[in-house]
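Re: that backbone. Tokens:
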């Protein structure tokens, strides 16, 4: 049985260290093992979108929680690194979902606020952190606010960022170590969020052709960068390209490595 308290301390240290924490999100055992075996990887994060897609479900808590947790438990058991789970919005019971995630071997997680009233969102954050304390560990919550992600394309950005900071500060005050603001990729907007939340407090999502390089994010003071569904899309893109090459009369890629 792994030392979950020790893994939680390690994961928290990775979030508070001067060096940015880079997480390539995984979705099954083989992806977890490949990522965990990569030099420089210090923790793993699951991707709810990718796990749901693996079983043929849409993202957004459409995959049954039992099935979702079963895959997460398999991932956590397959590696020796701390694992943080994308718990989506908590499946209607953030504290209970966190307790089940911890029982599955998880020591951290994302929790979406979905733009719900701030008092409800803070209560959900507190419930998740309490579940960690009840289990004897400091659960590392990546408290996510969706106000930017869910805003319309014509929404004025300044007030959106201000609301993200307002919510983020409330989650930090409730005990979350970092605040996740997906939907922000512009360098100046990232800098504004760091200024509002503090250095080492912001978590961002890397988006192809949009997000600054990781080295730049570290210079800006970002604590964590994760990749959501994009690693699975990278893998599936390679699969489709390989298939297209073969059916067109070609060969398998020459640089294929045995990773499973």
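Recovered sequence:
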């Amino acid at each position: 049985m792994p030392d979950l308290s020790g893994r939680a301390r390690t994961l928290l240290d990775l979030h508070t260290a001067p060096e940015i924490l880079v997480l390539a999100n995984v979705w099954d055992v083989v992806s977890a093992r490949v990522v965990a075996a990569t030099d420089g990887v210090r923790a793993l994060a699951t991707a709810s979108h990718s796990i749901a897609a693996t079983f043929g479900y849409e993202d957004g808590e459409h995959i049954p929680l039992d099935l979702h947790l079963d895959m997460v438990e398999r991932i956590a058991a397959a590696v020796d690194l701390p694992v943080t789970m994308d718990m989506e919005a908590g499946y209607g019971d953030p504290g209970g979902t966190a307790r089940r995630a911890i029982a599955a071997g998880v020591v951290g997680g994302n929790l979406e606020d979905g733009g719900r009233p701030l008092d409800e969102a803070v209560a959900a954050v507190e419930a998740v952190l309490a579940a960690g304390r009840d289990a004897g560990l400091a659960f590392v919550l990546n408290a996510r606010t969706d106000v930017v992600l869910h805003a319309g394309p014509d929404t004025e950005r300044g007030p959106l960022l201000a609301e993200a900071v307002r919510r983020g500060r409330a989650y930090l005050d409730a005990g979350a170590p970092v605040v996740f603001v997906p939907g922000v990729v512009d360098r100046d907007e990232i800098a504004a969020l760091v200024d509002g939340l503090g250095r080492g407090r912001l978590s961002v999502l890397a988006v192809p052709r949009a997000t600054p390089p990781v080295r730049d994010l570290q210079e800006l003071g970002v604590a964590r960068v994760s990749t959501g569904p994009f690693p699975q899309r990278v893998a599936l893109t390679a699969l489709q390209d390989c298939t297209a090459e073969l059916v067109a009369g070609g060969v398998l890629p020459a640089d294929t490595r045995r990773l499973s």
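The beta strands are 21-23, 44-45, 83-86, 108-112, 140-144, 178-180, 202-205, 224-226. The mean pLDDT is 97.
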